[in-house]
Every structure is written in C-alpha cells, then in structure tokens.
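#struct-help
A.M.: can someone run this one for me? Single chain, 369 residues.
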Amino acid sequence: MSSPDPQVRAARNPSTPPARGPVVAVTGAATGVGALLTERLAASEEIRQVVAIDERRGECADAEWHILDVRDPAIADKLRGAGVVVHLALDLDLETDPAARSAYNVRGTQTVLTAAAAAGVHRVVLCTSAMVYGALPDNELPLSEEAELRATAEATGVGDLLEIERLARRAPRAHPGLNVTVVRPAVLVGGTDTALTRYFESPRLLVVAGSRPAWQFCHVEDLCSALEYAVLEKVDGELAVGCDGWLEQEEVEELSGIRRMELPSAVALGAAARLHRIGLTPSPAGDLAYTMYPWVVSGSRLHDAGWRPRWTNEEVLAELLEEVSGRHTVAGRRLGRKDATAAGAAGATVALLGAAAVVRRARKARRRS
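D.P.: on it. Structure tokens below:
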C-alpha cells in the first residue's frame, strides 16, 4: 500500500506545512545506496514526495512504493508527476555473470532515461564511479571533473559505467529539455563489496613494484548528501565526490597495520589474468590497475556549490577495516577462516598461484592425450 499523499499527511497534522520541493523517484530504492537515499529524501523538508522503485519493497514507510524491474517500459507510468529521477538500480556484484550484469545495467539505464523523458521528468541523476577516469601513471593529482575518461572495459563493471556515461551525454540531445547529472564517487565504503574493498581483506596488501597508489574513499553518507545536492538542483553536470585529499600507500599500511607484499608487475598482472581466466577469482586483471595508479578526484564542482564531505579518508578507512574484519580474501577470492589460517599470509597467494599452475598442467595433459 502506498504512503499517504503529503497533502493528506499535512491535513492530519495542520501544524505541518506541506513541502514545496520536488517529487523525486529513486530506482534501486530497497537496498544499498538507494535505500539510504530514499530514507534521507523522505525525511527532508525540501522534498515533497519520494517515489521508490525496486523489484521488492524496502523499509521506508514514507515513500510511495512501486515494485517492478527498471527495464520494464511500464516504469514511465510510475514516473509521471516526478520532477527528478535518481537511477541507482545497478548491479556491480563481483559474482554476477558479466553478460547478464551488462544487460541489466545498460538496458535499465536506457529504459529509465527514455521513460523519464516520456513522463515529463526534467532531471535524471545517474551514479557511476570515478573509476571511469581510469587509473593511469600519468594521472594528475587530483583529477578535475573535466578530465578525459580514459578507463577501459577491463575492470569489473567499468565497461557498463562507461556505456552509462555515453548514454548520459546522448540523452539531452535525444530528449531536449531533459537534464542529466552524473555523480562519480571515489572508492565507495559503507556496506559495499567491491574488488577495491576486498583488497583490504587480504592478509597482505599487494603492491606492484614501481606503481604509485593513491587512495581516496567516499563514504555512502557523503555520496547520499551529494546526490541530494543534485536532486535539489544546487549543482549539475558531471560531479566527482570523495573525501578531501588522499592517502599514500605507506599511510594506508601504517593506519591499517597490514604489511605489504610486493611483486613485479609482470608477475602480478599475469597471475591475476590467469586466475580470473580459469575461474579461481572473480576479479579480472584490470581491477589491479586501480590499486597501482592514482585516480583521485578534486570534487571542485560540489565544493564550489557549498558541499563538503563529513568523512575523512582516515575515518572511512577505519570503518572499512572494521567492516571487513574477520573476512579473508586473496586475489579477490573469499576464503574460509580455516583456509586462510592454514594458508598463512603470503602462502595464501602462493596456494592460488599453485592451483592455477596445476590447472594449466592438467589442461596441457588433456590436450596431449
């Protein structure tokens, strides 16, 4: 059952003036960032009503819920009357089949943009990642929002995010009057599970010799406040969001208490590619680049609009370490506690590399027979 209309709620409580802000639709509203943003907007006096869309009902009682797949063209009917749509129904799960993940992410975004235009929505807010800038040794520190998107499709989900960015640029031309804002967070922390958060579940922090890591985080609470800025039209365009500044690898190691394991580039990248190819790890070799080279963003557009992060990199790292405590991951693959204890620190990596070698030998033997 839908929540009462805001005017009905105001009539029941005459002392509460009706909100004059926009009606905002949020896709992916039942879980993750979508659930947090839905609660935040529903509690805001600057928002008239929140329309929550997902494949299951979430917990926000003050939102008007619609249960459907965002790829369903019927979503256009659910968006009528909304002034802003925040599209957060994305699947970036490491374990999802890549083809199915891309089909959902790209088709879902296409459908939402088309449906929003058909429904008379004037603004769509999309969320990708600062990963679209690419992690490259010659990146400036920090990158401006205007920096070229130099990422490739080799890392988990980045190909989908680049396609979403392309759709965002094309949509205003295809649908005049539709404003599209794209928000690009740094390493997202707060109930998230990505190749980059799993990096801190390892018994040793893998460092590729000759690389120049620089770590910048974004807490989900700061992401939600940045999304709210976009919803309220305090800022638009392409927006990068993250904590101020960054941490060098040595600072991360000191703060985390996790020592490094340094490998030559050819060994690390080659092993990562082989392990992923034979299905021992969910992360492709492209994920490793984001732990090797900087992709720190300035967030200047949000800052110019008056937004500031509430979290520091040090605080977000501490929360991340608390979240992953007790988990054991090597090369992106989760291990059981018994496996991790038995393998030891560097030994766990050696075990995976050994497993890869065994598989290769077995395949060669089958080809010879």
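A.M.: thanks! Residues 345-368 form the longest helix (24 residues).
D.P.: also worth noting: The CA atoms of residues 183 and 239 lie 5 Å apart.
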